[in-house]
Amino acid sequence: MCLLVEMDVQVKSNVTRVGHKTTTEIYSYITPKMTNDLVDKLNGLIAIYVGQ
To answer: Got the DSSP string for 6-48?
Structure first.
């Protein structure tokens, strides 16, 4: 999760992806763009760490 935070992934997207719940769930939601950004960044991390 720290790597994703460093990459400016929204906290809500990050915690939802790993299955955690936060009190911010009441006040926020994930947009399609946020989901797409997260997937793109996860794919980038996979390419860096697995693709080498």
So the answer is: HTT--HHHHHHHTT---GGGGT----HHHHHHHHHHHHHHHHH
pTM of the model: 0.50
pLDDT at 22: 62
Q: Which amino acid is at 32?
A: P
Question: How far apart, in whole angstroms, are the C-alpha atoms of residue 52 and residue 47?
Answer: 7
> Which has more confidence, 17 or 52?
17
Q: Cα angle vertex 46, ends 21, 14, to 5°?
A: 15
Higher pLDDT, 50 or 24: 50
